[in-house]
Backbone:
C-alpha cells in the first residue's frame, strides 16, 4: 500500500482540472456538515507532498493538519460548502452531505472537469468518480478532507465560546460521555440535530 496519497486517480481520469471532494461531520450530534473541494495547481504538488505528508486527515497530527491546511489554502483552488443542522434534519444527513459537496464544488474559483469524491456515492449532477477510502488514495481528496475537518473544527470551537457547557471545542459535537451528560443537564439548542439519537429521544421526552 502506498504510504501517501498521490495523483494516480487524477491522472487516470484523463482530465486536466480535477477536484477532490470530502466532508467532515456526518456523525456529530450538532453543528453543520462541512464539505471541501480542492484543485491542485499542477502535478508537482505530489513532490511537494513528500514534505507536507498530506494524507487522510484522521491519520495526521493536529500540527501536520494545520501546516497542510495553510499550504493548501495558499496554493490550491479551494471551495467550502456546508449544511446546517436544520437542513440535516429536513433532508437527512446523507442528502445534506451530498448538498454540502455540491456547494463546495460550486464555490471553487475554477470549474472542475471531473470530480473525485471520498466514499461510494456521487452528488447528483456531478461528473466524476466515487472512491472508497479515497482520502487515503487521492491527494486531492486527502487535501479536501483536511480543509473540511479544519474548517468544521474551527466552527465548533467558535460555537464553544458561546456555549462552553457542552465542550464542543474538545468533542467537536460527537457523543462523548461528558457531552451526553451536558445535554441531559442543559438541554439542547438550535445547533443540535434533532433527528439524531440520542437528541431525538430528549426532544420526545421533553415534548
Residues:
Amino acid at each position: 500500500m502506498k504510504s501517501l496519497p498521490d495523483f494516480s486517480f487524477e491522472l487516470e481520469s484523463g482530465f486536466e482540472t480535477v477536484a477532490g471532494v470530502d466532508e467532515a461531520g456526518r456523525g456529530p450530534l450538532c453543528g453543520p456538515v462541512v464539505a471541501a473541494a480542492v484543485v491542485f495547481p499542477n502535478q508537482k504538488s505530489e513532490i511537494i507532498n513528500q514534505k507536507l505528508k498530506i494524507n487522510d486527515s484522521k491519520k495526521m497530527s493536529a500540527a501536520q493538519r494545520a501546516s497542510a491546511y495553510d499550504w493548501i489554502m495558499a496554493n490550491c483552488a479551494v471551495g467550502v460548502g456546508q449544511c446546517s443542522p436544520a437542513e440535516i434534519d429536513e433532508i437527512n444527513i446523507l442528502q445534506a452531505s451530498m448538498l454540502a459537496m455540491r456547494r463546495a464544488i460550486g464555490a471553487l474559483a475554477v470549474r472542475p472537469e471531473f470530480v473525485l469524491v471520498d466514499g461510494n456515492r456521487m452528488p447528483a449532477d456531478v461528473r466524476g468518480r466515487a472512491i472508497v477510502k479515497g482520502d487515503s488514495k487521492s491527494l486531492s481528496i486527502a487535501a479536501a478532507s483536511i480543509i473540511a475537518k479544519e474548517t468544521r473544527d474551527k466552527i465548533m470551537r467558535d460555537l464553544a465560546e458561546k456555549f462552553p457547557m457542552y465542550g464542543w471545542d474538545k468533542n467537536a459535537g460527537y457523543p462523548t460521555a461528558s457531552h451526553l451528560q451536558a445535554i441531559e443537564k442543559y438541554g439542547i439548542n438550535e445547533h443540535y440535530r434533532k433527528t439524531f439519537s440520542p437528541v431525538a429521544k430528549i426532544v420526545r421526552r421533553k415534548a
Observations:
- The beta strands are 18-24, 33-39, 77-83, 114-118, 128-131.
- The chain has a mean pLDDT of 93.
- The longest helix spans residues 139-162.
- The radius of gyration is 18 Å.
